[in-house]
């Protein structure tokens, strides 16, 4: 936390929009903490990329992100930042997993054959992407999540922003907001030099390979039993998505639908379908059922009372039945709201 606090201070001094640091400490009740001021804005990618509220600012964001990235790379050094060969460090992690995949091997071979010269040795944010940015009606309000910062090639941040996974289905490569040219124009405006497109593309391919390896590691953590988690299992399913994106980034032509082989009997890679179902079942048993043990009780065979803290389950039942709310009524000593389904029979009252 001390290093992240130092990064936030240095970023603020360099003109990078970040939340103002309020306090931090290495150990309070056994855990470190860091407190910053609240920053108004939105971080959820699909809202930023689709909501009308951000329609005016979206076309300006690619260039603005380029300018902000240049300011990050102009930050003074912060003690304790790692400085290692990014590709070889990632290959070590990939080899430790002992799960070689043909598409990743192809990507790794390309990365080693086309590696560009370093553009510099600066502070690198390490996770500069849509989802770690607070955007307001006037533009970028804050850059978040500095825990992966390190020293290295500044173009890594630009390539990572352009990785397809962080476009969230937008056709625009620079974080889903604009073109690579707009991003590099903004960077050149603040940095005083324009990065070469080929070098940025190398870091984009590296970023796709990196995310594939990280997804593979998350799947391994779950499947090995070290940390059983439905979230890790779900992230693990994204390995095949990154395999596809990696081959696409390398220019591999798509296979025509009529020439594609017959579908496999199960999902490509792991977790398999059965392993995913098992992960969901474990989550329901461990995290959901204990909190809803007394959730729904049957009364007189046709009435059920929802004891949940919200009306979510009743709203779900309402949508399923196509029914409508019929107003408020009494159930015992508590006020309830009820709905009537298609059959027109008795409602399911929900305690409030």
From TrEMBL:
Matching Pfam families, A to Z?
A: APH
Positions in coiled-coil regions: none
- What SUPFAM superfamilies does UniProt report for this protein, alphabetically? Protein kinase-like (PK-like)
Give the molecular function GO annotations.
transferase activity
Which residues belong to any copy of the Aminoglycoside phosphotransferase domain? Answer: 2-203
* UniProt keyword annotation of Transferase present: yes
**Entry's Gene3D superfamilies?**
3.90.1200.10
Keywords in alphabetical order, please. Answer: Transferase
The answer to whether UniProt assigns keyword Transferase to this entry is: yes
Name of this chain's protein: Aminoglycoside phosphotransferase
Specify the taxonomic lineage: Bacteria, Bacillati, Actinomycetota, Actinomycetes, Pseudonocardiales
């Amino acid at each position: 936390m001390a290093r992240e606090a130092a990064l936030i201070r240095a970023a603020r001094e360099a003109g990078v929009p970040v939340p103002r640091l309020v306090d931090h400490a290495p150990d309070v009740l056994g855990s470190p903490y860091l407190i910053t001021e609240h920053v108004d804005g939105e971080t959820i990618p699909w809202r930023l990329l689709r909501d009308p509220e951000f329609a005016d600012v979206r076309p300006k964001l690619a260039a603005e992100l380029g300018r902000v990235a240049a300011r990050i790379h102009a930050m003074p050094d912060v003690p304790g930042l790692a400085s290692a060969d990014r590709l070889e460090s990632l290959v070590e992690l990939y080899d430790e997993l002992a799960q070689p995949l043909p598409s990743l091997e192809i990507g790794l071979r390309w990365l080693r054959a086309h590696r560009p010269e370093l553009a510099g040795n600066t502070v690198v944010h390490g996770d500069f992407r849509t989802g770690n940015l607070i955007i307001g009606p006037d533009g970028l309000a804050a850059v978040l999540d500095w825990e992966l910062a390190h020293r290295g090639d500044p173009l890594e941040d630009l390539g990572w922003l352009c990785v397809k996974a962080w476009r969230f289905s937008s056709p625009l490569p620079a974080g889903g907001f604009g073109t690579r040219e707009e991003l590099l124009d903004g960077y050149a405006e603040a940095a005083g030099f324009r990065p070469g497109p080929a070098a940025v593309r190398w870091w984009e391919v590296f970023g796709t390979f990196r995310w594939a390896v990280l997804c593979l590691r998350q799947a391994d953590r779950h499947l090995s039993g070290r940390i059983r988690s439905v979230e890790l299992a779900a992230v693990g399913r994204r390995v095949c998505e990154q395999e596809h994106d990696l081959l696409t980034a390398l220019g591999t032509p798509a296979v025509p639908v009529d020439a594609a082989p017959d579908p496999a009997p199960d999902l490509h890679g792991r977790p398999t379908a059965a392993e995913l179902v098992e992960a969901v079942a474990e989550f329901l048993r461990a995290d959901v059922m204990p909190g809803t043990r007394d959730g729904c009780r049957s009364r007189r065979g046709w009435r059920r009372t929802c004891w949940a803290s919200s009306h979510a389950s009743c709203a779900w039942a309402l949508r399923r039945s196509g029914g409508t709310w019929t107003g408020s009524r009494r159930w015992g000593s508590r006020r309830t709201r009820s709905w009537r389904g298609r059959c027109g029979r008795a409602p399911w009252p929900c305690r409030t």
